[in-house]
Amino acid sequence: MEILSQYGLFLAKIATVVVAIAVVAAFIVNLTQRKKQRGELKVTNLSEHYKALQEEMGAALLDAPQQKLWHKEQKKKLKQEVKAAKASAKKGIAAGDKSRVWVLDFKGSMDAHEVNALREEVTAVLAVVKPQDQVVLRLESPGGVVHGYGLAASQLQRLRDKQVPLTIAVDKVAASGGYMMACVGNKIVCAPFAIIGSIGVVAQIPNFNRFLKGKDIDIELHTAGQYKRTLTLLGENTEEGRQKFREDLNETHHLFKDFVHSMRPQLDIEQVATGEHWYGSQAKEKGLVDDIGTSDDLLLGLMKDHEVLNVRYLQRKKLLDRVTGSAAESADRLLMRWWQRGQKPMM
């Protein structure tokens, strides 16, 4: 009996140690996960990438003896560059004195959750930007919720307020809320068949009241405030509620038009704010964009006189976020297909 008692006490001690170790390990993992979830900035030198690509293509066209000689020359050139960089550092010549183009990317979904990364990227650029620098945003979005894209446009407004030249490059689509972002730029460049415009607001709400009545199901909706709810999913909608809902849509549209016109005062806002969209060449004729071209050609042209750097804020996601995020992306792709078949985005 005594042996069993001692054995039980021994097991209890072991269990206590194991639990303590597990708690400490869980605490460490939690701290690590929190640190990862904060995200990190990734800066890629696009100028160096393009230069290396150009050199590799040139070398691929040489025969074997020439390639061998080319590789020797590259090693020699690299040593000279390192030596020159060290000499400049000793003289106090800062490498950051050259003009830079900071490249950001925004591929927007319906809820515009990408604004979380955009605000970090804009903040990072503003922390180091020089008077001779500029920013290029590669934008792709069919629009979405009003408050989300309003915040995204406000993040870009921070650059404009600090007198940082901002160019918006659109290869595929910048419509509705996407165009709200684009018009903040000092200059808009888009591909010939990019979709531009759709300055309008839309909302649709299904109503199941008649179906529920047929099943003898009553819905009670109690509100404090005459217009706390105008239209509902389940209750019986009134003409007064519909009228108020339309007034709210028109007011949002009015604010949208005012914002676009304040950014691009040369626009005939009443002519272009009809909810229609246009292709790049047509959009240029109407003054919605400034130049026709792809983001690739824009950046290659800037590389001649500037160092071009891509800034991305990467945030690690939990497993659940990855699953739900993938589902959301699939829904966005489906909505995009519908929109391309004639449906309009919310904003």
TrEMBL record:
Keyword Transmembrane: yes
Gene3D superfamilies reported in the protein's UniProt record: 2-enoyl-CoA Hydratase, Chain A, domain 1 (3.90.226.10), 6.20.330.10
Keywords: Cell membrane, Hydrolase, Membrane, Protease, Serine protease, Transmembrane, Transmembrane helix
Pfam families: Peptidase_S49 (PF01343), Peptidase_S49_N (PF08496)
Domain of life of the source: Bacteria
GO cellular component: plasma membrane
Chief location category: membrane
Residues annotated as domain Peptidase S49: 159-308
GO MF annotation list: serine-type endopeptidase activity
Membrane-crossing residue ranges in chain numbering: 6-29
Keyword Membrane: yes
Coiled-coil stretches noted in the UniProt entry, renumbered to this chain: none
InterPro entries in UniProt: ClpP/crotonase-like_dom_sf, Peptidase_S49, Peptidase_S49_N_proteobac, S49_SppA_C
Domain Peptidase S49 N-terminal proteobacteria: 2-156
An annotated GO BP: proteolysis
Record's subcellular location: Cell membrane
Matching NCBIfam families: PRK11778.1
Family: Belongs to the peptidase S49 family.
Family annotation (PANTHER family): PEPTIDASE S49 (PTHR42987), PROTEASE SOHB-RELATED (PTHR42987:SF4)
Protein name (Swiss-Prot/TrEMBL): Peptidase S49 domain protein
Lineage: Bacteria, Pseudomonadati, Pseudomonadota, Gammaproteobacteria, Enterobacterales
